[in-house]
Amino acid sequence: MPPSPVTDTSGRAASEVSQLMQRAPHQRADSVAVVIPSYNAAPFIAAALESVLRQTRPADEIIVVNDGSPDTAELEAALAPFVGRIAYLKQANGGPSAARNRGILAARSDYVAFLDSDDTWLPKCLETQLRVLHERPADLLYSNGIVVGDTPAAGHDLMGLSPSRGAVTFESLVTLRCTVLTSCVIARRQKLVDAGLFEPRFRRSEDFHLWARLAHRGGRIRYHRAVLVRHTRREGSLSHDAEAMARGAIETFQDLRRVLPLTRREAGLLTRQVARFESQIALDQGKRSFLDGGYATAATLVGRAADLEPGRWRRLRLRMLQTGLQVAPRLMRRTYGALRRPLTAGLAKSV
Description:
This protein is of the alpha/beta class. Helices cover 44% and strands 14% of the residues. Helix 3 links the parallel strand 2 and strand 3. The longest helix has 28 residues.
């Protein structure tokens, strides 16, 4: 079945939109809707759509959601060549969660695949994802990707930067042993709806919040290591600011602790990770003071990071680092590699 025609629901009453979201499902087995949220995406959206249209297994629906973007005129001009091949929805700005939810609810397909507007798929992305799902049934499947853009990470694969090791469970997600990469995801639409969709309150780590809830309710999440996505990292993206990512992670972890019926062990894991992110924030602040020459302030902040850190050996290393900053800060300036890698590497643009 060909992709849906262009649709703009921005001026419709709520009852009409509700009826639109309850359209009859696709008749084709294993139908796939591609959901692309768009905000300030006019320069990138054509490349994203072309990558979807070049798939060896065509998508059944392509849904672009304009999330109250300030570049709407430019975006709609960029979308003009795709009229008749996409569904186009407009809404007031609500963030990536609200935009993805709008696309999920509008979809009629069995599966939903996500693509950020500045990312692109390799031609066999959908074909490979569906083949793996047939071989290893799952409610959500994610693949690997490669980083592109003006960044030191360019050329590295996403699973090398944000590893996935072992089975995907609530625990492995919380401890960042497994990181779901959103532009690499295909999932059963109804399972996402049943899990409560993305939480619109969050604009960072919002995808993690849904994956954790899905896993906690018994959803089967799997991954494979084929590189199927080109993932762009650029200045100004929501995942660029490491400290903001850490604060977003803290917010989502605390919310999971509030909304889920957790065991004592699960609650303890969330509490531990919140402490670790708070420690990382203090460490990153200490790094900035250190590089600015504020050695006394840096030592104080590293001490705070040690106080917060739940892990024994990491806490010991932080104490040693604090001592070095107090005793020989200029020598430490030459060997500050311990400050380089933020804990949020596992959550960045999963991401």
